[in-house]
Amino acid sequence: MSVNIMANCIVSCDASTSASEGSDESFKSITNIIEEINLEGEMVAMLIKHFSHPHKLTLNHEEQVKADDKLCDCCMTPMFEPFYTCLKCDLFFHKCLELPRKKQHPLHHPHPLTLVPKHPNFQGLFFCDVCHQNCHGFCYNCEQCDFNLDVRCASLSYILKHEAHEHPLVFGKGSKPIDCNGCGFGNDILYSCSDCNFSLDFNCASLLNSATHKRHEHPLDLTYQDNADHNYCDVCEEERNPKHWFYCCRRCNFCAHPKCAIGKDPYIKLGKTYPYEGHPHPVAFVHKTRGHPPCSKSGNPCKGLALECTNPHCNFIIEWCHVSEEHAQQLIMKQKKAAYEEED
């Protein structure tokens, strides 16, 4: 019954070479077991109490609670059994709740990182300094340096064994960017093979081995070699680079870019509010497609991630692409202010 945060990701980690090690009390699990049951000869925590939530969490192992369209509120990836849920709140958790409260991480040597269930800024929205994604969910944070890691990146080890490559991949930070074999983008933080010219960035190393999309009825499998009859994406209808990874339904020959299959912002939770100062009412994240009301800023029909007013009598909606520029500027100003105060 043991489930790892990366259980749906085609990697295995060498536990003896974890990227974040520690031995003192603060590095131990922070989940209190209240009740255990015997499942198939193994004692499993049925009822737990976690520091991040005021209520007790119950193990869901026989589909007592349906969570087909839910994301884990810790790691923001799709739910799979077994998982924990709060019977009083709409909250769902993988067993990544067992992550340690503090971690030392090679990408941030000066200070240990602390696990926080909600980042203190922007109603919990934060920018991961490794995969460069905007994220909700739990965060490993250094408050002093404003350094943030999402739990997916923080959980990857020094050495990965990935299905896409025959040799182990070793974590490292280079002096210059190297193209990732999964997506083709350059990065200086990579998992690389010492015997081959093969490297993966954190985004590709942590891609789920399967995904679902509303435009297709079957699961889509992460695919490394393009043997399809066509080299275009069936979601955005644009060309695909045959050398880059993609998701594919082999039964129907339905193929999609990873960003199209899992979304451009897969770790943002829809329905979460955001402190947007350009509107007097609270706004929340939504995903819109063609045919919805126009963006209040551009006048164009909203497509993709957007912020929508939660007041039912207000029609305000703005595409996230317009807000994200302001969000990035706010982060830069915050970092500059922190650096200035540190100099003083």
Automatic annotation (TrEMBL):
<dbReference type="InterPro" id="IPR046349">
    <property type="entry name" value="C1-like_sf"/>
</dbReference>
<dbReference type="Pfam" id="PF03107">
    <property type="entry name" value="C1_2"/>
</dbReference>
<dbReference type="InterPro" id="IPR004146">
    <property type="entry name" value="DC1"/>
</dbReference>
<keyword id="KW-0677">Repeat</keyword>
<feature type="domain" description="DC1">
    <location>
        <begin position="164"/>
        <end position="205"/>
    </location>
</feature>
<protein>
    <submittedName>
        <fullName>C1-like protein</fullName>
    </submittedName>
</protein>
<dbReference type="InterPro" id="IPR053192">
    <property type="entry name" value="Vacuole_Formation_Reg"/>
</dbReference>
<feature type="domain" description="DC1">
    <location>
        <begin position="51"/>
        <end position="95"/>
    </location>
</feature>
<feature type="domain" description="DC1">
    <location>
        <begin position="109"/>
        <end position="154"/>
    </location>
</feature>
<feature type="domain" description="DC1">
    <location>
        <begin position="214"/>
        <end position="261"/>
    </location>
</feature>
